[in-house]
Design brief:
single chain, 174 residues, alpha+beta, seven-stranded mixed sheet, 4 helices, 7 strands
């Protein structure tokens, strides 16, 4: 059954807990979403608070995918670029699909829903994201139409002796 997507959902305890649990589960399954396992929802809470502050300020928007039971199954945070010369594109952060839903096409669905949402934003011509090398996720984003436009070798230190490339990818919307 496909996910149901909602842009800018009402933030309440159920959504908060759903996003925190998703983030912890994705991180603990090896997902490259800003943490290295093992992590708990409490470890992630400060980063959630930063995202909330950015949403409150209107700098960031949240797209949530709900499964058939109404549980948070996927997210993407869409951040406006605040630099006055770069306001024609947005950043995409913390793109996640719950590990229990891997292989169902939900990642492709999330990326398509994100693209559709951003196409509705006035004046936005592209979506930019970064991803951690060595995970294969860059091939996934390429399958969604994103092109690699930059790479910084060894920029992400996952652990001592485990440095990964920071890969910059772009989806042009025009």
């Amino acid at each position: 059954m496909p996910l149901t997507f909602e842009l800018d959902p009402r933030i309440g305890p159920a959504l908060r807990d759903g996003v925190l649990d998703l983030w912890a589960d994705v991180s603990n399954a090896g997902g490259a979403v800003g943490f290295v396992p093992p992590v708990t929802s409490d470890d992630i809470r400060p980063e959630w608070a930063k995202h909330l502050a950015a949403m409150d300020d209107g700098r960031t928007r949240l797209l949530v995918g709900y499964d058939e039971a109404g549980a948070v199954a996927a997210t993407a945070f869409i951040a406006n670029n605040t630099h006055r010369l770069m306001r024609h594109w947005v950043w995409l952060y913390t793109v996640m699909v719950h590990p229990a839903h891997q292989g169902k096409g939900y990642g492709q669905d999330l990326m398509a829903a994100t693209e559709a949402a951003v196409r509705g934003f006035e004046g936005i011509e592209a979506i930019r994201l970064t991803c951690r090398g060595g995970t294969g996720v860059d091939r996934f984003y390429a399958s969604c139409g994103y092109k690699e436009v930059g790479r910084v070798p060894g920029a992400i230190r996952v652990a001592p002796g485990d440095d990964r490339d920071d890969i910059v990818m772009l989806l042009e919307l025009h």
